[in-house]
Amino acid sequence: MTDTTKTAEALKRVLGDTYALYLKTHGYHWNVEGPNFKSLHELFELNYTQMWQSMDEIAERIRALGVYAPMGAELAQLAAIDSTDNSVPSANAMVQNLVSGHETFLEGAKKALDIAQEAGDPATEGLLADLITAHEKMAWMLRSSLER
Question: Which segments constitute the Ferritin/DPS domain (predicted)?
Answer without folding.
Answer: 9-147
